[in-house]
Amino acid sequence: MTDSPLSLSLIAFAFILAGLVKGVIGMGLPTIAIGMLGLVVTPVEAAAMLVIPALVTNIWQLISGPSFIALLKRFKTLLIGICFGTPLGVSFIVSGQTAIVTAGLGFVLMAYGIYGLSAVRLSIAARAESWLSPLMGFVTGIVSGATGIAALPTAPYFTALELKRDDLIQALGLSFTVASIALAIGLFITGEFEVEIATTSVLALVPAFIGMFFGQFLRKKIPQDKFRRYFFFSLILLGAATSFRAISLIPG
Question: Is the Cβ–Cβ distance between 19 and 54 less than 8 Å?
């Protein structure tokens, strides 16, 4: 990892922008930050650098909502699934074989964003949660461990359950918090969460929170129907940025 002024400025800007996006739509910090951090560090270093900002901002997002206990009880099996899936995904990111997986993730994000802006609506019955939640959690854990991004498939799953805006943001914060902790443990066990990166990760809290606070302010000013459109349009942009970056890293 380089400590040049240009690199440090890029890192700070990456976390401000990523925090802003997360503050507005409740997700996107790893997606934005990893894409930009990839210009100066390796994917596994970027994931390690994200550990503290992702964890703390996710906890803040989680506790700032109105329904923590209710959502924790409702999605406890999803959270357990994340914990079981993450170790499998971590083996990909520490091996460096993440480009194809990340590119696929980006395309899925774009597809989900396009679907959300369309007139088609997918709805999941409450009775299906008993078996879908642990499955969604397990897949999310694998994706999070492999790419550092925990948005899929939890984001479309929560949306299909027709959660209200505040519950959607808080449910995402809950799942992202557990995914961040599981990823941090996996990186620590494999020796990738080193002291130098840990220090940078702590310092990155400042720009991440600056961006997030401003994003949360903007979100409160946006009506719910516009928020929904912005949410899905942002997913398209996030997916496109993720895929473009990942494809550029695929050999050959």
Answer: no
The structural domains of the chain, with segments of one domain joined by +, span 5-249
Task: Report d(CA 111, CA 106) in Å as an integer.
Answer: 9
The amino acid present at 51, given as its one-letter code, is V
Give per-residue pLDDT as tens, 102-154.
777 778 778 878 877 887 777 888 789 999 999 999 999 998 888 777 888 89
CA within 13 Å, CB half, 37:
29
Contact 84, 141 (CB under 8 A): yes
* b/e code 7-23 from CB counts within 10 Å (16+ = b): eeebbbebbbbbbbbbb
pLDDT digits (tens, 9 = 90+) for 199-234: 888 888 899 989 988 888 888 887 767 777 877 787
Report the predicted TM-score, pTM, of the whole model to 2 decimal places. 0.76
Q: Are 26 and 148 in contact (CB under 8 A)?
A: no
Q: Dmax over Cα atoms in the chain, in whole Å?
A: 54
* Residue 81 · residue 135 · CB < 8 Å: yes
Asked if the bond preceding 153 is cis, omega within 30° of 0, the reply is yes
